[in-house]
Amino acid sequence: MNRALPPAPVAGGRAAFDTPMRFFKYTSVRILALFVLSLAAASLITAWLNPSPVAVVAMDTRKQPGDELLTLIFDHARNGGTEAVKVYLDSGYTPNIISPRGDSLLIVAAYHGHPDLVKLVPAQPNVAIDFQNKMGFTALTGASFKGHTDIMQQLITAGATVNHRNMSGQTALMFASLTGRFDAVKLLLNSGANAKVKDTSGNGAAALAAQQGAADVAAVLAAHP
């Protein structure tokens, strides 16, 4: 007795589209996977070409000082010992050292107002100019807080990010405004500082100046477009 053949697939039925649908699903998954991989690759390339300040410090392969030398060099940076720091750098040590307090060499030099050091340190290769300490200070925000306009200009010329924001959303302009540094505020505004941004507490630079009684600074900020 002959066995009956199975019926032919009905046009438009599941069997007719089974192979194309499997192909479509497989192709879609491949396209999605390739898209995700391309995004990951782009992120890695961006990070490699534009590493964060923390990454620059972490990846630095130059000589690292021991604890005693580290303390000595930061003492020189704090007190304007340019020649001693130059000898240190010329000996192959990294400029990207971090103190136990979390400060970089450049932050200390800028905060304490030593223009020769601020000229020397960023001239070294691969310096993390926007490195941020535990208080949220970069070299530029520290100099802005103290009103060291000559050093601020040096740092901006060397590539410091004028509108860098710390973990609280604060900028160099906010630090200068908070301490009523009129000339520092004018310099930052002329260098492209954004006067309209607010920190995570909702305070802008003008409000911070007004809170501290710096009416002249608050007026300049309020009038800035």
Keywords:
Serine Threonine Protein Phosphatase 5, Tetratricopeptide repeat, 12 helices, 0% strand, 56% helix, elongated
Task: Tell me about this structure.
With 225 residues, this protein is mainly alpha-helical. The chain has helices at 14-49, 53-59, 67-78, 82-90, 105-111, 115-120, 139-146, 149-157, 172-178, 182-190, 205-211, 215-223. Among the domains are: 60-135 and 148-159, Alpha Horseshoe (Serine Threonine Protein Phosphatase 5, Tetratricopeptide repeat); 162-225, Ankyrin repeat-containing domain (Serine Threonine Protein Phosphatase 5, Tetratricopeptide repeat), CATH 1.25.40.
Layout of helices and strands:
Layout: H1 14-49, H2 53-59, H3 67-78, H4 82-90, H5 105-111, H6 115-120, H7 139-146, H8 149-157, H9 172-178, H10 182-190, H11 205-211, H12 215-223
Helix pairs in contact: 3-5, 5-7, 7-8, 7-9, 9-10, 9-11, 11-12
In short:
This protein has helices spanning 14-49, 53-59, 67-78, 82-90, 105-111, 115-120, 139-146, 149-157, 172-178, 182-190, 205-211, 215-223. It is mostly helical.
